[in-house]
Amino acid sequence: MSQPNNANPIQPNERMLELDVLRGFAIFGILIVNMQFFSTAFQYLSRVRANMWTEEGDKLAKLLIDSFASGNFYTMFSFLFGIGMIIFLDRARAKGIRAVPLFLRRVTILLLIGLVHALLIWYGDILVEYAVLSFFLILFARAKPRLVLASAFFFLLLRPVLTYFGAYQKITVPLYSASGLGNQLCDVNGLLDRANAAYQYGTYGDQVGQRLVDFVYQYGTFWALFPVVFAMFLFGVYAAKKRIFHDVEGNIKLIRLVWLGSLIVALLTTFFKSDLTAVNTISFKYVYSQWFLSLRNPAICFFYVTSIIQLLRLPALRAASLPIATVGRMALSNYLASSLICTTLFYSFGFGLFNKVGPGTGLLISLLIYPLLVVFSILWLRHFRYGPVEWIWRTLTYGKLQSMRLPASKATSTAAE
Q1: Does the global pTM surpass 0.85?
Q2: DSSP letters for 67-89
Q3: Residues in domain DUF418 (predicted)?
């Protein structure tokens, strides 16, 4: 697929600080949430409702993670992905490039990166899901903002309806059968035992085989999150089409309104969560209760987003946020680096801490890893335009070798900042 010679990726001086800070913040939250999946076979533990950790510190850490992080950062990352798509397409069109084919090439490469990540590093990959859904997201590229917003709410509220009509079983069971793993994927206790053996004691080859099983199992159970992810994509598309991040000051009233509304919804859904979760799934009342609960994670996400945007209006905090922004500038590299670091810490080929670290220690490890990502990002971006994986992604997307190293004068001035 040929592109004009002026098809170049976005340059560092064209970036929006707010978006980079939000990406850096999202990487931190995702690391905290994923730590329980790195350190244990949590995808199966949660299904058999096994609780390995009974100490008060672990209980408190789990409560904090569930209350303030779980479900709130993949939604933020999805929201930012939707914004990124429109920025990418607008910039390509401004240069006279066939934007849609270029975008489809971009997400195809993302799909390949995600598959490598999922099968060779860590099964809990999100990139495959993003890439697959992007082939549908492109249909909204030229849609009117009102249609995009209405569609976002439609997909956000779709999951309870699918559950009520038994779509879970109708999709999951055939998917498992088609995978050739069939009954094995329905024996959660057996899957738990095999995952523990592979990651705690097995060879790297054993773990690759187990990751394939885990990957299929995950997409057989987590498909129900697809409507939520797609809804957050669309909220991001809406924000980009309305150019909210292009003109924060001009949209500050809307940002404050979303901040207040999301706070109210988050508080209400959290307060009534236990009562609404107990509603019988065969009752149509379940749909109403789940519609209400479906707003919780996006509401917390938007509360975080709008809070950060408003805080960044303060010059002192804007300057203090620059290290987090560097993490966001190379979010893909840092996301994958987190997987490499954590699998090395927990799996048998590394330090072998699998099943030996509870939520409390896991949270502490997250707080230690993130500063390493910050330092790595700062040092890397003093000398290079993009993160290492971003450079590969861009080079393959545009079909030509991208300029990677900063000019000596620019690298020196960046180091002095």
Answers
A1: yes
A2: HHTTTTHHHHHHHHHHHHHHHHH
A3: 239-400
